[in-house]
Specification:
By secondary structure, this protein is mainly alpha-helical. The chain is built from 4 helices and no strands.
């Protein structure tokens, strides 16, 4: 869709998918700060950190293959990546 008309579809995608996700993340971060379990984090930067990390595993397949010798993304790699990403992000949020 973005290749066809990035202005129109980009707006639609942002409003229908990205905004609700960003709003939910911001609410979770705020609640965590209020409960004293998270440190203050910029919700916008957190959004791009998390989404970018998730996107890059799948869009960076050339790096998997040519740098790390991994031919594809299987369920085991996805689970390991989720565990790793969760550990890194949750440790970074601790208050």
């Amino acid at each position: 869709l973005l290749a066809e008309d990035d202005r129109e579809y980009g707006r639609v995608i942002a409003e229908e998918f990205s905004r609700p996700l960003a709003d939910a993340q911001a609410a979770i971060l705020k609640a965590g700060v209020e409960e004293g379990v998270f440190r203050q984090v910029d919700p916008m930067l957190f959004y791009f950190n998390l989404i970018g990390a998730c996107d890059h595993l799948f869009y960076g397949r050339y790096s998997l293959q040519h740098v790390f010798g991994v031919g594809g993304i299987d369920l085991d790699l996805k689970r390991r990546y989720v565990d790793h990403l969760y550990g890194v992000l949750s440790s970074g949020l601790k208050g």
